[in-house]
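Reading group handout, session on sequence-to-structure problems. Before we discuss, look at one worked example. The prompt was deliberately terse, the way you'd type it at a terminal:

> structure START domain-containing protein 1

The input record follows.
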Amino acid sequence: MLPAIVKLCCGISYQHFRSMTGLQQRAVAAIGQEINLMQRGSQITLPNWASHVQWIKANSHTGKPENEGTISTPMTLREEELVYVNQGKEALKKALEILQDKDGWKREILEESGDVVLSKTLPGTGKVFRLEAVLDATPEELYDDLFVKVEEMNQWNPDVKQIKILKHIGQDTMVTHEVSAETAGNLVGQRDFVSVRHCCKQKSCIYLAGAATHLEAFPPQKGFVRAQDGPMCIILQPLGEEKKKCQLTWLLNMDLKGWLPKSIVNQVLPQAQADFTKHLRKRLSARLVPLQH
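And the output record:
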């Protein structure tokens, strides 16, 4: 696709096309997008002339150009990339619909820290779980740990063996492969997940959504049961005037597959949520120690 776009941009150099500002801008934006994608895949080395071109970027949250005076429309994504973005948005929509329904939630776990895990049964879906916790961090700090640095999660969460980003779609959507760690006694067995992860920010809240997806180049792996995330969501919200505290709400909707009895699954998942916040608190505490000296 890149050679065709370059020819289009070269054609703009003719006097007849120079007044077609929109065409110029779209061509430059398209080349910028194409080069960025190809760079990430290590497919090309940029020529010298590329350093003199100012690529046009769109704001990842608003979809609008960062420089309003430069271009009137944001860069477009490839059709296959839009599929993942739409999956992420749909997962967020469905997850929020579940969370907004306050009826029918029953308590599963109540920790000394005040963390609580609730559950409810949805027709056609089964049990979903909702974690509520208050953490000593800002939404932006947690966003950094849970989304930006998601590949580092195994460093502080022993329940995760590995998370690898398979595909980036802009700054707000990615496809990941996650492998769970082996458990004591290996009662559940290791699972792996291929999921789309999507984030968006509205005012002071940050939303991290996810759902199972399919990547042709990454079929089920030998030795693992390919589990599936249903529409799930983490909401990070400032706690009133407490600038360094954050309310975390996590909807977990997961199908572990395999031959596991539902009774075991319904014990394992809420406990995994409770353990997750313990590990996250340890990470946050360890980060604060150097600042106190």
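Points for discussion. First: Helices lie at 2-11, 21-40, 79-100, 139-148, 262-292. Second: The domain at 80-288 is CATH 3.30.530.20 (Alpha-D-Glucose-1,6-Bisphosphate; Chain A, domain 4).
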